[in-house]
Amino acid sequence: MGLINKMADKMRDGIRSFLQITPAPENVIMIDEGLDFLANCTKNRIWYIGRSRQLSQLYSSLNGVSKTMFWAAPMTQGLEIRKLHTGLAKIVIDMLSYIVVNDFNGMEITSEGDKRYIDEWESITKKNEFEDKLGEAVTDICITGDGAFKLSYDREISDKVIIEWYPAERVRFIRRRGHIRSVKFYTEYSKNGKKFQFVEEYRYGSITYRLIDGDDKEFPLDTLEETAWAKGENIAFDKNVMFAVPVVLGSHPQYKGRGVGLLDNKDDAGDALDEVFSQWMDALRAGRTKQMIPERLVPRNPNTGESVAPNPFDNRFIIVGDSMQEGKGNGIQTDTPEIPSDSYLAAYITALDVYLQGVISPSTIGIDVKKLDNAEAQREKEKTTLYTRQRLVGLLSNVLPKLVTAALNAQQMIVRGGQPIPDSMEIKAKFGEYANPSFESQVETVSKARTGGVMSIRTAVDEIYGDSKDDEWKADEERRIKEENGIAVLNETSELDDIDV
């Protein structure tokens, strides 16, 4: 037994001496990122604006951008092509913003019989044209990913609290343990060629004002006429209240603590789509019918007698020499090139698909896809729009009650000098159901559930109409459906009803 143990120990020692694993060296990966958060917001906004000249200037001036990109590539002199932008980014964002804002059915405020807060909010929304501000906010959120509402009061403008929207470029969030504890709002001014930034910092329980320049050097608030009013106006109030409401869509993987726009990572796909479209249109221009004209038949300038040179737009003829062959005429010959439209169309559809993936369905923005998909496939794609809409609706459902609470608190505390609103108040944002082709499949699904006996009539009505109809209408609809189906609704009775008194 001892001999066996000695042999085993000897084998283990041999294995240890034979198998030696060297740990991997420590690698340092350096990545040069050319854009900070503000520059990234500017890039997204230029894509949204949709001006081809601005896109060309943007990518020509950015550091670290590959010159093989369509918008960054310089063109050879004499071989220039038209760089066209489809404008799809603006179409997508405007449509999503319209869908969400159009489905907004106002706020539901439960105040335990006290209607003054409900009337107060309605008057605030009318004074501020709130739906227009909400549409602006949703659009900016889709572009840049975040922003914030700011509440202020100016007795010269209105007797109600003023709701202002600031996009991501003009706000900065101060976080503590992952929670936003204050919001800085930036407004730019200039005087005598020098630029200033007016900084309003909204914290829980206070508002402070500063005036700085580009080097973060502070100046007196009365340096500018526009900010002189803020001198000595630092405000303190209840530390449980903040008169700013941040709005952050998702979490940006690169810029921590900031939101991410819906098309933030679609630069390359948008560049490829514009390239395909531009090449297609350039091929159509270059593929015009050409005329082979002998030199003696070329159109000439009546004043100088020189031959007229075609420009890149109307390049419709080519000058050829006179033929000296016997039997060959020197007439005008016509040539019509063949354009591979099917190849360009396939490339365009592929680029379009990649660009819209995960954001919106092609049919939502009016793109005809019936040649590519059947009806069922189109309905499945339409779910992409529903998911994106639900993401925005979920964000607003969380933010808007906070905004109403902050606005009513500002009206009570700053304007009226009173106390904060009661905590028992319930505030809810109401959104209707998005009417789209998948509504048919929703009705079909609910009908199957009703037929299978796993869903009541009232639940079916709630599922189909959602918040677009109130409870009273739904109750009436339930009663009408029961009557049409011959279901009698009787009052409950008991044995006491049969006793004659």
How would you explain this protein's 3D organization?
The protein has helices at about 1-20, 35-50, 50-60, 90-100, 115-130, 130-145, 265-285, 340-355, 375-415, 440-450, 455-465, 470-485, and strands at about 105-110, 145-150, 160-165, 170-175, 180-190, 195-205, 205-215, 220, 235, 245-250, 290-295, 315-320, 335, 425-430. It is α+β, with helices and mostly antiparallel strands and about 500 residues long. The strands form 4 sheets. Strands 4, 5, 6, 7, 8 and 9 form a 6-stranded antiparallel β-sheet that branches. Strand 7 and strand 8 form a beta hairpin. The longest helix has about 40 residues, at about 375-415.
Q: Return the string of H and E elements.
A: HHHHEHHEEEEEEEEEHEEEHHEHHH
Label the overall shape.
extended
Which structural category fits the helices and strands?
A: alpha+beta
Most strands sheet: 6 strands, antiparallel
The count of DSSP E runs of length 2 or more, i.e. the number of strands, is 14
Total helix count? 12
Distance between the termini: 105 Å
- Rg for CA atoms: 34 Å
List keywords for this structure.
501 residues; alpha+beta; six-stranded antiparallel sheet
